[in-house]
């Protein structure tokens, strides 16, 4: 129940509903006599000290009547909700137990009724059942039912696949029994939580019916009826209408706000919040002079999230023109976030700090905003993991490519369109002219990834960051995309930062490999040394986990025992120590990344 | 995960299925509206004319309505009449129900459509603005204010907005006429009363959809392309949020048509809604029957249109559903 009080909406809703319930209980005994007392000397009065909301045509005090009417209004709404919910649950459960044809008929009816405005259903029912409270309650009940039927159907379908339901079915338990014993009890909670919202709707619906003169009839009175009486006098004494109106509005708001919070709580169990520990350990020591030839130069890159979670810690990286650098690591090692940080795409509330972040010789931190946008827009191409998701489904493929040229290079629409077709052809998309006019969903996965690469080639890319570009593709398509990346790098002289968890692919494609573990670079080495010359125990374990032709297939694949610490758990020492066979007492201290032969660096005390 | 291009034909069969569903629903509605008169306990003619009416008058009225015929014959002639645009005559005024509908329907539809347009024009930018401002949990204050305000606005029914608007702007300030249909100024308050709750609702949907969209890879890629903000939001984000927004907008339009009953009642707006309330309280069953039938048919037609429109706008979403 505590989550109710966490949001202002929840607090306001709980407060209002509590007030309404108290009013319904204590209203009639306290103000009942006052509400019925006829005073012929005070008929049709406006606002006065004795009658804060005025009096009606028999001189009865309207404030007292509003306070008393709460009980009837709530009771009728509750009745209508229960009738509607009961009918709805039965309607919603029926398709699960009826034969297929009948089930489809019920589902179809429910779908048609859900789309039908409740008020019309209520009026239809009220015409048949006659004017008065009974007709209105039945009518509003009929209006509530379809929503509950739909909810029951959806919820029942969501548990229908659960193991215990399948098991009951396999045991030959009848469908009625499965429904009543296994399904309904498990969906009861969300159904009950949704009652609050339905109750709010029913209350407003009944008020509307009574306000139209179709609901509660005198001498009974609910808020709607008081509103009906007051409305005819709104010109002379607006207060007599506004009093009951405010009561209805407050009740409606209360039940809806509370219902909203409850329904949302029903939809998703509250997720435990991650506890943040750990702290950033900035690399000390100088960062040296900038390298004028490097395409990308990163020094001391740190990405921090609130609560001290630091997924990337003091990372340094240099990429030369034409070079393909592989950035490997398990998921969670911070490699994708490193890519985002270089591209300036770290989502709020993440914070990026870097001793140096230079792209094509320009310091991204010092560049004016417009130039930075232009540089990143044209010189940096990004390719993401899922080609299904990286193209905008609503826009034509050609248009998405062309806009880079339009926005950053001032090309005209036609020029940009032609260039887009040309680029698509360049990445060997067959029939580029036709494909450019199509939407992404009409292209295959491999073709879409080609299109994304072509998009990167619209500018003059100096650096391509490919973040797991082949993970979502099947193996043959993977090879083609890898070949294309290599070819693009060769032709344009652009460098590629290839991010992958697949050390085999990295070994095949890249010139140089950078291994990340728990947010830090642990080893950096030429690809030729990867198989036999790796110095860090983690890299060696990664390489050893790869099966090759000599691997004995009857043995389980080698894997690294333990798991990588999450960014919040990383301590001050070597993060791999807990999983490392060679670890010693010294590993409680952070090993620096130091030179280990030519173009080879490693961060390990034991290397 | 390689995927073959979708066959184009699927779009056509989707539209066909929806039209068939519409036709079936319409038939059910027709039977239901016919059954309405017969489900009324006792004799509807007697109920309408009152206990004092002479027996001969009741019998004559029954014969004129065809209520003395066998039920299947009555249904057949009812369907034939309705398809021919004939809805019977009012018990009370004797005017053809067809004329009542023809005179009143445009006023109701005009109000509902204008309110929908106003709601969409305000709500979509509002929701997008809120989403951009509160992306990834920044500006928690704005988020709380937005959800609470829209939650409260949705919870207040049209007739209360109507009464409040009349009390404040018509009677209090005297800026707008309190009732009746006249010049453009007479439209302002009814449209406002109808549009406030849908605006809040659509703004919420628009915000949620925009937030979802901002987290997608293609928006990440679009941001990586460093597009100007206007282009990013209008060209890349907006189209992908519209499907859900328009679905809700379409469903709200049907709700608006029903809500207009109460708003028309408050503003004495000469539409169908005012007439249906009168006909129910006066037990003028032919009018109630005809008007409910027309309302129902409009709702079904709007739902069909929304579905077809969405099918055309976003082929993938249309194909996903059954």
From TrEMBL, chain A:
Residues 70-259 form the ABC transmembrane type-1 domain. It is a multi-pass membrane protein; Peripheral membrane protein. It is found in: Cell membrane; Membrane. Keywords: ATP-binding, Cell membrane, Membrane, Nucleotide-binding, Transmembrane, Transmembrane helix, Transport. It comes from the Bacteria. Coiled coil: none annotated. Gene3D superfamilies: MetI-like, P-loop containing nucleotide triphosphate hydrolases. Its main location: membrane. InterPro entries: AAA+_ATPase (IPR003593), ABC_Ni/Peptide_Import (IPR050388), ABC_transporter-like_ATP-bd (IPR003439), ABC_transporter-like_CS (IPR017871), MetI-like (IPR000515), MetI-like_sf (IPR035906), Oligopep_ABC_C (IPR013563), P-loop_NTPase (IPR027417). Pfam families: ABC_tran, BPD_transp_1, oligo_HPY. The chain crosses the membrane at residues 12-31, 74-98, 110-131, 191-214, 234-258. Belongs to the ABC transporter superfamily. Belongs to the binding-protein-dependent transport system permease family. This is Dipeptide/oligopeptide/nickel ABC transporter permease/ATP-binding protein. It comes from Microtetraspora glauca.
């Amino acid at each position: 129940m505590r989550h109710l009080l966490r949001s202002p909406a929840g607090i306001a809703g709980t407060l209002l509903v509590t007030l309404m319930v108290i009013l319904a209980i204590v209203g009639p005994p306290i103000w009942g006599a006052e509400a019925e007392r006829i005073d012929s000397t005070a008929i049709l009065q406006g606002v006065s000290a004795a009658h804060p909301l005025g009096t009606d045509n028999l001189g009865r005090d309207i404030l007292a009547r509003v306070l008393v009417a709460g009980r009837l209004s709530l009771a009728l709404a509750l009745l209508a909700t229960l009738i509607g919910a009961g009918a709805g649950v039965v309607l919603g459960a029926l398709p699960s137990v009826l034969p297929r044809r009948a089930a489809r008929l019920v589902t179809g009816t429910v779908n048609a009724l859900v789309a039908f405005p409740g008020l019309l259903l209520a009026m239809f029912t009220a015409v048949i059942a006659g004017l008065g409270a009974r007709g209105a309650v039945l009518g509003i009940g009929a209006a509530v039912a379809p929503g509950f039927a739909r909810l029951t159907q959806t919820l029942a379908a969501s548990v229908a696949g659960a193991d215990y339901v399948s098991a009951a079915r396999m045991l030959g338990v009848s469908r009625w029994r499965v429904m009543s014993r296994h399904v309904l009890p498990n969906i009861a909670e969300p159904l009950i939580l949704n009652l609050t919202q339905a109750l709010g709707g029913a209350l407003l619906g009944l008020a509307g019916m009574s306000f139209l003169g179709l609901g509660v009839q005198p001498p009974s009175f609910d808020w709607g009826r008081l509103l009906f009486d007051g409305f005819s006098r709104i010109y002379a004494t607006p207060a007599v209408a506004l009093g009951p109106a405010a009561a209805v509005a407050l009740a409606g708001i209360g039940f809806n706000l509370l219902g909203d919070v409850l329904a949302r709580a029903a939809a998703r169990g509250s997720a435990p919040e991650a506890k943040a520990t750990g702290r950033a350990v900035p690399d000390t020591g100088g960062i040296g002079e900038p390298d004028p030839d490097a395409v990308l130069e990163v020094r001391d890159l740190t990405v921090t999230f609130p609560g001290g979670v630091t997924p990337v810690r003091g990372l340094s990286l240099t990429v030369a023109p034409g070079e393909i650098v592989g950035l490997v690591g398990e998921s969670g090692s911070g490699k994708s976030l490193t890519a985002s940080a270089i591209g300036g795409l770290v989502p709020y509330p993440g914070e990026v700090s870097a001793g140096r972040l230079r792209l094509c010789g320009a310091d991204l931190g010092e560049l004016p905003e417009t130039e930075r946008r232009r540089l990143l827009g044209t010189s940096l191409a990004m390719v993401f993991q899922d080609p299904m998701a990286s193209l905008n489904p609503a826009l034509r493929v050609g248009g998405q490519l062309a806009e880079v040229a339009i926005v950053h290079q001032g090309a005209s629409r036609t020029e940009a369109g032609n260039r887009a077709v040309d680029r698509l052809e360049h990445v060997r998309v067959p029939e580029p002219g036709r494909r450019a006019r199509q939407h992404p969903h009409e292209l295959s996965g491999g073709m879409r990834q080609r299109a994304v690469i072509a998009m990167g080639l619209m500018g003059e890319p100096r650096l391509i960051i490919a973040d797991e570009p082949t993970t979502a593709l099947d193996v043959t398509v993977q090879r083609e995309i890898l070949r294309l990346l290599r070819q693009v790098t060769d032709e344009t002289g652009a460098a590629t930062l290839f991010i992958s968890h697949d050390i085999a692919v990295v070994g095949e494609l890249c010139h140089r490999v950078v291994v990340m573990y728990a947010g830090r670079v642990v080893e950096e080495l030429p690809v030729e040394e990867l198989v036999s010359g790796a110095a860090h125990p983690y890299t060696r374990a990664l390489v050893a986990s790869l099966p090759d032709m000599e691997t004995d297939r009857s043995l389980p694949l080698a894997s690294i025992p333990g798991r990588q610490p999450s960014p919040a758990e990383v301590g001050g020492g070597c993060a791999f120590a807990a999983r490392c066979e060679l670890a010693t007492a010294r590993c409680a201290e952070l090993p620096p990344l130091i030179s280990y032969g030519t173009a080879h660096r490693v961060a390990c005390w034991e290397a | 995960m390689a995927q073959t291009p979708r066959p184009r034909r699927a779009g056509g069969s989707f539209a066909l299925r929806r039209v068939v569903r519409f036709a079936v629903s319409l038939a059910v509605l027709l039977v239901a509206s016919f059954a309405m008169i017969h489900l009324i306990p006792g004799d509807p003619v007697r109920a309408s004319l009152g206990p004092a009416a002479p027996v001969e008058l009741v019998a004559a009225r029954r014969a004129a309505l065809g209520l003395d015929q066998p039920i299947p014959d009555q249904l057949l002639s009812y369907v034939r009449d309705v398809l021919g645009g004939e809805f019977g005559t009012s018990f009370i005024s004797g005017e053809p129900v067809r004329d009542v509908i023809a005179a009143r329907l445009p006023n109701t539809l005009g109000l509902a459509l204008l309110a929908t347009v106003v709601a969409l024009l305000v709500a979509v930018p509002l929701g997008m603005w809120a989403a951009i401002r509160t992306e990834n949990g920044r500006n928690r204050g704005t988020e709380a204010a937005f959800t609470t305000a829209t939650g409260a606005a949705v919870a207040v029914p049209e007739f209360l907005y109507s009464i409040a608007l009349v009390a404040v702007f018509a009677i209090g300030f005297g800026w707008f006429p309190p009732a009746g249909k006249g010049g453009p100024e007479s439209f302002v308050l009814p449209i406002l009363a109808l549009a406030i709750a849908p605006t809040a609702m659509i703004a919420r949907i628009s915000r949620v959809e925009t937030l979802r969209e901002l987290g997608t890879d293609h928006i990440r890629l679009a941001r990586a392309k460093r597009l100007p903000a206007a282009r990013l939001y209008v060209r890349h984000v907006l189209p992908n949020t519209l499907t859900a927004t328009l679905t809700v907008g379409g469903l709200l339009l049907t709700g608006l048509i029903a809500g207009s009953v109460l708003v028309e009642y408050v503003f004495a707006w000469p539409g169908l809604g005012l007439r249906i309330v009168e006909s129910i309280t006066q037990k003028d069953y032919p009018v109630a029957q005809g008007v409910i039938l027309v309302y129902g048919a409009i709702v079904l037609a709007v739902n069909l249109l929304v579905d077809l429109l969405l099918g055309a706008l976003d082929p993938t979403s249309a194909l996903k559903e059954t």
